[in-house]
Structure formats: C-alpha cells, structure tokens
Amino acid sequence: MARYTEAVCRLCRRSDEKLMLKGARCFTPKCAMEKRAKPPGQQSGRRRRRISDRGFQLREKQKARFTYGLLERQFRRFFSQAEKQAGVTGDNFLVLMERNLGNVVYRLGLADSRAQARQLVCHGHILLNGRKTDIPSCLVKEGDTISWRESSTKTGYYAEAAKSIAAKTVPSWLNLDRQNLSGRVVSLPTPDEIDVQFDVKNIVEYYSR
Asked: pTM for this structure?
C-alpha cells in the first residue's frame, strides 16, 4: 500500500499547526514548528491571500488525513461508511477513525506516534484478541484486547516502552494494563472523548458539495 514518505514536519508547516506526527519530538525545540513555522516552499515575501471557505474546508480535511496517516482513497472510504450509518455523519466519522487498530495502539501509549503504531502492527508485533494482525486500518470493537506477540516482548523497543508507559495518559474508553503492556476496548469512544485538532464539520461540508 502506498504511504507518504517525505518529511512529516512539512505537513505540520503546511497546516500551520502542530499535528503531533513525531511523538515526543514535537514537544522539544527540535520541532520544525518551533524553528520555522512558515509554510514549506519558496517565500515570496508577499502577504498570503485570504483563504476561501472551500479552501478552509480542504485544509481541515487534510489536517485530519495527515493526523491519522491515511491516503485520500482510504480516508474517503471511511467517510462513506460514516454517511451510511445512522446518526450524525461527523460523529460517526470520528469514531470510525479512532477505532483503527493503529490509532488504538497509539492511544494506549504503546507507541509515541500513529506512524510508529502502524509500523508495530504491520511488522506483526501486535496481537488482536490473541491473533497476529498486520492490518493497522482494521476496526476494533467493544471488548477487544490488544497485546504483544510473545517474541516481541524480548525486543529493545518493548523494554523502552515498558519504561515510558507510566507517563502515558489513556482515554477513558480504553483500559491499559501497564505491567503487561496490554489493553482492552472498554467501550466505543464518543465524540466528546476524542481529542482532535481539526473541525470535523468542515470535513462533512467539504464532501457534501
């Protein structure tokens, strides 16, 4: 599957906001938004034009896509799925995005970023309900358990994760066993429990035109 492979810090600068794409590095002076917050590309020195309503909707859609690390086709597929469900489309969409296995691994604090969490899943280090799953986009459901493959607990990464897990904060819809570095989906998330840096209403408006 295709994946964005360029410098992710450019995505933050393009969005004019920290999207926390590099985990702990985003909290240090090394963060690109701290050193050069201007958009990537040649700077002409002229004032930036006012963004239209359509342009603002596009920017919010891109921020959401960059945050969750999805390409356009997969992002659009999740939105179409949210439209077919009963209820508010924007709320359905947020919940679907949060239910991605890669995102759940990140929310549990087993990885410092969503990109790192996707890599853990793709490399087969993570078990879903006791079975190896290498598809980060698969959706978890209430009662599912997330744990490490036994051979992966002997790696250096696991040892580092065990040291840092005490400082991690886990959302209320997840339960984390800090001793065994495993988690369980207590319930499906509600929109109020999801902390995001984009406006989902603008995404709905973008795709509704």
From this structure: 0.78
